[in-house]
């Protein structure tokens, strides 16, 4: 080739290359303009063209409630409601792995859906055709059944733009009615309505996320338009309740309530050293899986909402107060008959008729003498007894913080009046709740230190952070010596009282105190012949580990606190078995009931 021809070819090549570079540069500039500089404008225009901009809620899962050992008491399961958009149902063009296009017909897709959900393809097609027959413009045709997560994922993998899904959460309570009054329940829309489902909603509640995107006219998501805000699942709420123990206590208290012909019954078990509530069972109760099957009054917890005069159970608190003040010893004595009128005009009687006895403090508790306790109570000022009652927890809700928990009521001494001056020594003229009575006994059994009662152990958030509830600091209420001596008195009640044989737990030293409280008639007096009965047990008495309390409202077979004795014996026996409490190795020397 001549040199001139070669130079001409090179020039043509250079010119062509320059033209290509210019064109490429133009495309690059335009591409930057479309994808970067004016990206949002073009997306908006494209959305306007398609007319479809969508936001889908991404649902977080409500947290679980577990017992002290991790057993699941409440959990959420996810199902999915599926619906077709009949306007978008059509045959679809797909590419296989080799890039070859093929058509997937609506009939084929319907058959695939039907196989996953257990329906025929014809039934799936009919859902859409029926919707269009009813309304040619219909954009909604529900599948008509909830899908499991597995079914949802299989259908989603088909990549069908005309079927959409909405997550539907359901709450399940695997143990049924066990701890139902504590757990509470949620409504059909997932709203917490009672119990710890409501009180601890901040822990359990999930935070929903969202998926926003734009669709083309064919219903497919336009690539690059997706914006995702991830959901956050709820935390795990751990309770101090032992599900197995709770189950036993619910069966037992249901049986005993019915045996005694009572309106309702309850039993609590508290760990002395920690204040942790291990069981809080009651009858009637509620199954959170079907709360509508229970009467409305039975759907909540009477343990926390009911107040009552504690009656003779608080004679132990009077004794602890007197011992802490140094006003008495177990052998200190007073003379008391079955009924007396005091100088201020107050009239006090015991539950049984008897002559004049020279009761020791021990004997006054064994026979539960109101008259003797009235005389012992006068050994310290009313203001002092009032302060001790407050320190033991009367008039203040416990740290449990259960929804609707009452505080009880106690008036200051200047409002006690002549009768209240004496009645407060034996558990009348003020009201408490069951947890308050249990907490008072926990204080005595714990060497005089009051630990805050609690049922919530912790909340573990979705990212693993463990949050503990804020509880009051432990508080010394009485001296260790006064507390230990009071336990000795209670042990003598268990061994020398009329219920000794009924409450005995083979191999264990125990302490008990009963209470037979009159019920207000709402008119300033008391109902005739009906009582709110209770009994509190300490086990083992030589090294207290658990407080057990039983209550029965208006028992009719046995109307006194003796009605609660069988339930207490069964409950304490189960507690020592459940926690493998070592039997007592010593026996306590009995204290004298009467002074010489």
Automatic annotation (TrEMBL):
Domain of life: Bacteria
Subcellular locations according to the entry: Membrane
Pfam families assigned: PBP_dimer (PF03717), Transpeptidase (PF00905)
Keyword flag Chaperone: no
Listed Gene3D superfamilies: 3.30.450.330, DD-peptidase/beta-lactamase superfamily (3.40.710.10), Penicillin-binding protein 2a (Domain 2) (3.90.1310.10)
SUPFAM superfamilies hit by this protein: beta-lactamase/transpeptidase-like, Penicillin binding protein dimerisation domain
Annotated transmembrane regions: none
Penicillin-binding protein dimerisation domain boundaries: 59-189
Residue ranges constituting the Penicillin-binding protein transpeptidase domain according to the UniProt record: 265-572
GO annotation terms (biological process): cell division; cell wall organization
Keywords: Cell cycle, Cell division, Membrane
GO cellular component, one term: plasma membrane
Keyword Nucleus: no
GO molecular function, one term: penicillin binding
Protein family per UniProt: Belongs to the transpeptidase family.
Name recorded for this polypeptide: Cell division protein FtsI
């Amino acid at each position: 080739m001549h040199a001139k021809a070669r130079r001409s070819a090179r020039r043509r090549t250079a010119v062509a290359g320059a033209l290509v570079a210019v064109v490429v540069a133009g495309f690059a500039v335009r591409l930057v303009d479309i994808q970067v500089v004016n990206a949002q404008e073009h997306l908006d225009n494209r959305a306007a063209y398609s007319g479809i901009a969508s936001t889908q809620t991404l649902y977080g899962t409500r947290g679980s409630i577990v017992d002290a050992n991790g057993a699941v008491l409440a959990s959420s399961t996810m199902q999915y409601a599926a619906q077709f958009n009949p306007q978008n149902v059509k045959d679809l063009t797909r590419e296989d792995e080799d890039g070859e296009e093929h058509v997937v017909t609506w009939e084929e897709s319907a058959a695939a859906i039907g196989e996953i959900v257990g329906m025929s393809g014809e039934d799936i097609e009919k859902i859409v055709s029926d919707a269009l027959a009813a309304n040619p413009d219909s954009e909604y045709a529900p599948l008509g059944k909830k899908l499991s997560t597995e079914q949802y994922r299989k259908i989603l993998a088909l990549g069908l733009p005309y079927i959409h899904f909405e997550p539907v959460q359901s709450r399940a309570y695997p143990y049924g009615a066990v701890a139902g009054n504590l757990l509470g329940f949620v409504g059909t829309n997932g709203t917490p309505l009672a119990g710890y489902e409501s009180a601890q909603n901040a822990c359990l509640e999930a935070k929903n996320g969202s998926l926003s995107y734009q669709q083309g006219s064919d219903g497919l998501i336009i690539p690059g338009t997706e914006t995702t805000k991830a959901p956050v699942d709820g935390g795990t709420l751990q309770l101090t309740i032992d599900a197995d123990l709770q189950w036993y206590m619910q069966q037992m208290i249901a049986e005993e309530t019915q045996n005694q012909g009572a309106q309702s019954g309850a039993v609590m078990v508290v760990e002395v050293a920690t204040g942790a509530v291990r069981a809080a069972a009651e009858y009637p109760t509620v199954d959170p899986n079907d709360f509508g099957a229970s009467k409305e009054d039975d759907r909540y917890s009477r343990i926390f909402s009911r107040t009552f005069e504690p009656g003779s159970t608080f004679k132990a608190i009077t004794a602890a107060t007197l011992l802490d003040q140094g006003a008495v010893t177990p052998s200190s004595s007073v003379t008391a008959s079955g009924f007396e009128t005091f100088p201020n005009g107050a009239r006090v009687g015991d539950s049984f008729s008897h002559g004049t006895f020279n009761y020791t403090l021990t004997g006054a508790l064994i026979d539960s003498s109101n008259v003797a306790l009235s005389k012992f109570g006068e050994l310290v000022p009313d203001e002092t007894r009032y302060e001790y009652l407050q320190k033991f927890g009367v008039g203040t809700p416990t740290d449990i913080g259960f929804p609707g928990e009452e505080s009880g009521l106690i008036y200051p001494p200047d409002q006690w009046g002549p009768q209240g001056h004496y009645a407060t020594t034996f558990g009348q003229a003020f009201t408490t709740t069951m947890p308050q009575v249990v907490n008072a006994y926990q204080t005595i059994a714990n060497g005089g230190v009051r630990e805050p009662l609690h049922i919530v152990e912790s909340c573990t958030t979705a990212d693993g952070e463990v949050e503990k509830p804020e509880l009051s600091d432990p508080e010394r209420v009485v001296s260790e010596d006064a507390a230990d001596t009071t336990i000795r008195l209670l042990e003598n009640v268990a061994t020398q009282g009329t219920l000794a044989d009924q409450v005995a737990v083979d191999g264990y030293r125990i302490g008990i105190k009963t209470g037979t409280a009159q019920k207000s008639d709402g008119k300033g007096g008391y109902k005739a012949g009906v009582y709110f009965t209770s009994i509190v047990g300490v086990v083992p008495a030589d090294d207290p580990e658990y407080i057990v309390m039983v209550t029965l409202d208006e028992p009719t077979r046995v109307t006194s606190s003796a009605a609660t004795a069988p339930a207490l014996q069964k409950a304490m026996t189960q507690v020592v078995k459940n926690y493998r409490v070592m039997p007592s190795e010593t026996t306590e020397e009995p204290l004298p009931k009467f002074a010489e």
